[in-house]
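Hi, here's the filled form for the chain we discussed.

Project: internal
Contact: R.S.
Residues: 481
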Amino acid sequence: MRDLAPGIYEAIIDEYLRTTLSDHPELRTVFGKIDPEEQPARYASFVAKVLEQALREEVDQEKRLDLCNRILEHVARQPGRSHLEKHRLVPEQKPMLLEITPPHYNTPGIPRPHTPLAESSLFTGSPQEPKLSHELLEEMRSADAVDILVSFIKWTGLRLLMPAFEDLSDRHVPVRVITTSYMGASDAPVVERLARMRNVQVRVSYDTTRTRLHAKAYHFKRNSGFSTAYIGSANMSHAAMTSGLEWNLKVTAKDMGHLLEKFTIEFETYWNSREFIPFDPNNPMPLRSAIARASNPSFLADMDEILAWSLNTTKVSGRIPELPFECPFELHATYGSIDILAGLGQANLKSAGQRGIGVLHFPAVKAYALLITFQKMEREFSPSTMYADYPISRELLHWQSQSTTAQNSEKGQHLIHHDKRGYTILTFARGNKKRHGVTAPFTYLGPADRVGYEKERPINIVWRLWYPMPAEMFEDNRKGG
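And the returned structure, exactly as it came back:
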């Protein structure tokens, strides 16, 4: 044992610890009792760790099994404990039951998550871990009931989980969802769509000025006893479940059953609270009105239209880069300039927002959008706007500012020192201004960082893209291509 450092402990005293303390009479110690109700769990946890150490030290698999059985036999020989003998381990080539295949399955193979069903684990968003979205999908596909508690629900998040929601519906698995209208963050049509599923019930808090629901949790109940829950910081959004720095703890009934019991009790309390009102998809106006009050009404109307159109027409399913502000653009999807303005809150049905040749400024979120056309035709651009814009590689982009922008100007300083000034640079590019006689949209290349610059006015800047541009765009527009 390491030297006993001053501090707080909850260490059960075994002979080794008692001897160590006796050897150090100078230590000022404080002892306490164990509540009789806590003793079974405390002692079982202590013995389990000692037993695990012994099993790791024993490399022979048969002897490991024999050691476990001898302990069980000793316990079963105690008066009134003979019924525990049935838990003796049996030597099998495959000693773990993984599935009892449902009658409606033609072949075995119930979907299951990568992480264990019997051991709790922590998700931190690391690239080495399974994506949270994948784990939630697989957990849903094997659940017998689902309870979800999230502050808001976005289309980008529901779209990721929609295959699993449809599977739950097909299997008539009950789903309960608790959410809020706080800050107008939820997408109202998405909540409506979810609530229209025959197996889903939704309850909503309509308080737009405050929320006591900061928890984000997903509970997957299984009749097998191997229930699991994910508790942490991930709302139902694409960024939170794929690329965000969200931390989520997976809790299992087998090693943290008391936490799942508390989860169930608290969820039932919320579900039956007057604050969370049953949502009727046939009467969506209370939710829409609450969200409208909590957000920009005209912008919300625009987003509803864009979302409705997107549900019916979009074919893009790219990633959404994580940014310091809400940004709906999918990587390598295409957008017109008005879409870009609307997506960042500067255009709506009443106003088209700012005008600009190639640079849009969004001071509210401290961002610039660079709208780049690589192939400039003299008949389409004036001499002052024939900027030298071209890809150096799929990751590096040469860009030239407007002829009136100097290094010492406010815009020039924002662009050159964007990282120090807290500005985000978003890049949008297209090959030509027109396609088949119609104004061409821009492809969203994502955020970029400055790696070099030269000339006083206009400024030549080299940007490094966070994500490589599409290979076809690079080949079509590189110098000498």
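Let me know if anything looks off before we file it.
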